[in-house]
Amino acid sequence: MRTPLTVAAVQLPCVPGDASANAATHAELIALAAEAGTEVVVFPELSLVGYELDLIASAPDRLVVDPDGDAMALVRKACAEHGVHAVVGATAPHGGGVAIASLVCDDRGELIATYAKQYLHGVETELFVPGSRPGLVEIHGWTLGLAICADVAHAEHAELTVAAGADVYVGSALYWAGAEQRLSDHAAARAADNGCWVVLSTHGGTTGGGLTTGGSGVWGPDGVPRVQASGGVPEIVTATLS
């Protein structure tokens, strides 16, 4: 039988374009989450650089996160020291270009999965290469299926991810202020329609020059939220899946 899995959804302040500073904040929040018994920590979309598309467009090489570079080394070290898995938002090399990605580190500090966002929109389509495959990772007997922002808005993405074997749908996202109900509707529908847990980490505070919703949380297979953050940063909410 699977044992219960304790997860955390995080909101953090992002320094625009500064992966090193943001990685240090990731490490601090991983340590705090570990104190609460967390086994998996989920960060928002592009959490290592912020949702700073203008900066990324002006300096794409500088703002591509090297999975083996110094910034990720800080995150990986924190995961190993505290025995925690982490889903981190980053730009990453993909398909001859760059993807909006989720990088998954295990509790030994090893990079075990990279998932590329499939549903790009707006200026993202000019900057990034879309992914084409579900992102699945096994953690303590649970299969986590990865999603990034607009992926969560498309019902078929969750359906295909669950069909591929996921029993937890893990989203790293950004919702602009005013979209609080949209966030809740997306998370609840993905959970209830597929009978799966949903963990959604979204930005709080500001990024990319705009105010965001906050509202990171965990939804049960019935579509009912078990825990949800306010709009503040930093903020960590935890729940145990069983």
Description:
This protein is globular. By secondary structure, it is an alpha/beta fold. The model has no long low-confidence stretch (mean pLDDT 96). It has a single domain (5-241), classed as Carbon-nitrogen hydrolase (Nitrilase/N-carbamoyl-D-aminoacid amidohydrolase, 4-Layer Sandwich), CATH 3.60.110. Strand 6 and strand 7 (142-148) form a beta hairpin. It has 7 helices and 14 strands. The chain has helices at residues 19-35, 53-58, 70-82, 124-127, 150-153, 155-163, 180-194; strands at 5-11, 40-42, 85-94, 97-105, 111-116, 135-139, 142-148, 168-173, 197-202, 206-207, 210-211, 217-219, 225-228, 235-241. The strands form 3 sheets. A 6-stranded mixed beta sheet has the order 5-4-3-2-1-14. The protein has a 6-stranded mixed beta sheet with strand order 6-7-8-9-12-13. Helix 1 (19-35) runs parallel beside helix 3 (70-82). The longest helix is centred in the first third of the chain and has 17 residues, at 19-35. Helix content is 28%, strand content 32%.
